[in-house]
Amino acid sequence: MPARVLVTYYSATGSVHRLAEAVTAGAEEAGADVSSAELHGGQEATILSLNNVFYHWGCVIVPLGYTDDVVYAAGGNPYGTSWPAGFPSTMPDEKVLECARFQGRRLAHFAEVLASARAEAA
User: Fold this and answer.
1) What angle do helix axes 14-24 and 43-57 make, rounded to 10 degrees?
2) Which pLDDT does position 67 carry in this prediction?
3) Distance CA 21, CA 93 (A)
4) How is residue 41 annotated by DSSP?
């Protein structure tokens, strides 16, 4: 579950997002990545909770799925890149960073596909 202040912020952006959507007349693509203090710190649940906000905004969710071996190498979270940073915090290792780069490329690919489809429909 995301921190209450984050939920409050995202909830407050609903009307702002509707205005932006009216201007851009298109769906946005979204994905999430998270970190926690411990291995079982709720990374998957946090991403799923963040996705609820993206659904509210009308976004197209682009999860990692099990689409590449790098997902397994980075811990196997199909919802998005996640890193148990520990306490005190440590930086992500190279496997996790590669997974995050893969997730970014995947999100960008779907954004291009949807942008092209929107342009054709216009």
Assistant:
1) 60
2) 95
3) 37
4) S
Q: What is the pLDDT of residues 59-94, one digit of tens each?
A: 889 999 999 999 999 999 999 999 988 888 889 999
The owner of tokens 């649940």 is: 45
Q: What percent of the chain has pLDDT over 90?
A: 38
Backbone angles phi, psi at 29, to 5 degrees: -100, 145
Contact (CB, 8 A) for 9 and 57: no
Place of tokens 């709720």: 42
- Of residues 37, 43, 53, 30, the one with CA closest to residue 78: 43
Where residue 65 falls (left for φ over 0; alpha for ψ -120 to 50; beta otherwise) is: left
Prediction pTM value? 0.78
Tokens of 17: 């997002």
**Any idea which architecture 4-121 has in CATH?**
3-Layer(aba) Sandwich (3.40)
